């Protein structure tokens, strides 16, 4: 049996060697170790560690893997620092199995901002079945370009590219990677389905602009787990059209905390439905759990959100709903928020108003449930809650005293 198996795989290898010798270009398609599948090592395609741009070689390795018909095609990035411009890894790919993208080394973005024209530095587009892993480093070199971010003063600013952008990606896993200093978001998941992100560390300076850890929009069934995210903006942000999203065991801070929103910036936004945030710790963030919608926004829904078992450590604004975000319009937000549960939220707050619900006067927040809230103020004033236009239900322990 084992003999027969070996004979089959060595026959396959021989056939591939013959084909590849004939083509003289796909030498990396030879399965080096049959149990690992076909390995497409970027170095074999011409990538070189160092300052020279290896983008072309990476594209060739991806295209070879994506066109590989057999099982378990693996793009492999060995140890070493590889300098890369904008990369678009496009499917659909031919294998029935997920493509594995294994980064053992460091991917470093070129420092010329004009090299980037799309939403991602490294984009995966129209791929069904993808595993990105390898323990390596995804270094966006954001420190070279953050100075060009004018989003603070310019509402129509162009966002700098995310380090990794998923667009129309299905059945994907991204795990065991270290992101540092993205130009924009570190990982942006949009128009995607069934994506799991876990065991990531994401790090950027507290002062870096719009460097969200993960941004999820227009996607269904996304799970984020067991990750540590310390950046200058939101730890995880949930944008329009995110449904059935679970965030479990994530540690955040510094940064702006876990956010739903900003919602309602554009006309005709899609609803946000079904969000679970559980077993998370926020450390020294400027918000804990925040839902924010723009003043003057068009109608949409943000409903069915559970925040459970969350620890706050020296957090400003642990629980906040702000439907007057941006504050640049006299019209109220039309985003209808309902069915929100805050359960077992504990720890320390650096603001006395630990619960602050500023809901829209035109579509008040419905069914906002507080159960077992136990926050301690690190200062001397009295801990309190303020609420506007919110229908609140409270059960169990309540510090601060809820507003009713
Ligand atoms: C929601 O996500 C869970 C996994 O987190 C999955 O098992 C379930 O099928 C999803 N539900 C829908 C309606 O997509
Ligand atoms: C590991 C851990 O902390 N798990 C907890 C996650 O949250 C649920 C409740 O939301 C608890 O039951 C688990 O024990």
UniProtKB/TrEMBL annotation:
It is found in: Secreted, Cell wall. Keywords: Cell wall, Cell wall biogenesis/degradation, Glycosidase, Hydrolase, Secreted, Signal. The active site is at residue 256. The keyword Signal applies. The keyword Secreted applies. GO terms for biological process: cell wall organization. GO terms for molecular function: hydrolase activity, hydrolyzing O-glycosyl compounds. Residues 1-28 form the signal peptide. Gene3D superfamilies: Single-stranded right-handed beta-helix, Pectin lyase-like. It comes from the Eukaryota. Belongs to the glycosyl hydrolase 28 family. This is Exopolygalacturonase-like. It comes from Cinchona calisaya.
